[in-house]
Design a protein that fits this description.
The protein is built from 13 helices and no strands. The chain is mainly alpha-helical. Helix 6 crosses helix 7 and helix 8 crosses helix 10. The protein is elongated and about 55 Å long.
Length: 197
């Protein structure tokens, strides 16, 4: 099967038990354990943002920025931390580990923001069935190179429905539905929408 089949399989399993799927604290904990220390500001969003916000509130923005910078310098030379980052990056493109679905969720959120910010251009490109923003949308959905043309055709044929949807979330959900309903795209693109918690 294709390179994202394993990723899709585990996503399907975890999304059916979503409370087990997205544990950003667990992922951050794994990342933050270095050899020299436990890192306060490492890991992934939103956990890292919570830590930075708390530090800023308690220490002030100048001290917080200094502490984050100092810790970042130490983390780069900490074999335990760098090893965990490499593991996390591997998980981000695989079907196992505490960080894999976190990466998918972050990518989905980026896709929603992308559709929101580029709605006018995307509307035009979907109506034409071609364009650079559609290439980016195919990439967000992990479509393999040989299926991008089919992806664009399907979006063009569903232009009226997509254009009639109000929010970016609704549009992304419908695009995922289009992918699932097309036998080629279902095998070569990622079709699951990870629900917001």
């Amino acid at each position: 099967m294709k390179k994202y089949t394993n990723l899709l399989f585990i996503a399907l399993i975890f999304t059916s038990h979503f409370s087990l799927a997205l544990n950003d604290n667990k992922c951050s904990k794994m990342l933050n354990d270095g050899w020299f220390k436990k890192y306060k500001f490492g890991g992934i969003a939103p956990s890292v943002h919570k830590a930075i916000t708390q530090e800023t509130k308690s220490e002030g923005s100048t001290t917080a920025t200094s502490n984050i910078t100092t810790e970042g310098t130490t983390a780069v030379s900490d074999p335990g931390y760098t090893s965990n980052v490499m593991t996390s990056e591997t998980q981000s493109s695989s079907s196992w580990g505490d960080c894999s679905l976190i990466a998918l969720k972050l990518r989905q959120d980026q896709q929603i923001a992308y559709v929101e910010q580029n709605s006018i251009t995307l509307e035009r490109e979907i109506s034409f069935g071609d364009g650079g923003h559609l290439d980016s949308l195919a990439d967000f959905n992990f479509c393999e190179t040989d299926s991008v043309a089919a992806f664009k055709i399907e979006l063009k044929s569903n232009f009226t429905k997509i254009n009639g949807l109000k929010s970016s979330v609704e549009k992304i959900k419908y695009i995922k539905q289009i992918i699932r309903s097309n036998s080629k795209l279902n095998k070569t693109c990622y079709s699951e929408f990870i629900q917001n918690t």
